[in-house]
Design goal:
Layout lengths: L11 E4 L3 H12 L6 E4 L7 E2 L4 E2 L5 E10 L7 E8 L20 E6 L5 E7 L4 H10 L5 E6 L5 E7 L1
Antiparallel strand pairs: 1-10, 2-5, 3-4, 5-6, 7-8, 7-9, 9-10
Bound molecules: zinc ion (ZN).
Zinc ion binds next to strand 6.
């Protein structure tokens, strides 16, 4: 039985993009790297920053660059475009709470320790924590990636505690 406010069982934590990756992207963009673009957000929900896990707001600048969510050298290796704020921002804390801005329109992909995708499930608002816990009930699941349903872009990672 779960009582409000008491001992919420936490089996996982949200892991935002490492700060060193965001800082490297900002440096590379400033240096004019051809695969890094500086963009000004022009919609309130089109430019998710993977470091603070908030939407960049219209007028804020973001860096667009490719990120290897699954590193090269494996069958499921994958690199794709992500945004981070162009200005320094505070990394989203590693907590059990699903980031408020990304409870909708996400697909959760479960990977095993060999980085093979072993399950995937779409989350739309209801209870993303429950879906994560369901995926983690499979002992084969080593970690979970959260991606945009529509664009497919990597959003953040979930690790077992
Ligand atoms: Zn940010």
């Amino acid at each position: 039985m779960r009582l409000a406010g008491l001992m919420k069982t936490s089996t996982f934590r949200v892991v935002a993009l490492p700060t060193e990756v965001a800082e490297a992207a900002r440096r590379n963009a400033a240096d004019g790297a051809p695969d890094h673009a500086m963009i000004t957000a022009d919609s309130p929900t089109g430019f998710p920053c993977r470091h603070c896990l908030r939407w960049a707001q219209p007028g804020e600048r973001v860096v667009l660059f490719p990120y290897a969510a699954i590193a090269p050298g494996r069958p499921y290796s994958e690199s794709g475009p992500i945004f981070v704020h162009a200005e320094p921002c505070q990394r989203h804390p590693s907590t059990y709470e699903f980031p408020a801005n990304f409870r909708n329109g996400r697909v959760l992909r479960a990977y095993n320790s060999g980085h093979d995708m072993i399950a995937a499930e779409v989350v739309n608002g209801s209870d993303p924590e429950a879906v994560v816990e369901k995926l983690l009930r499979n002992p084969e699941t080593a970690f979970v990636h959260v991606r945009s349903v529509i664009h497919g872009c990597y959003t953040f990672k979930i690790e077992r505690i």
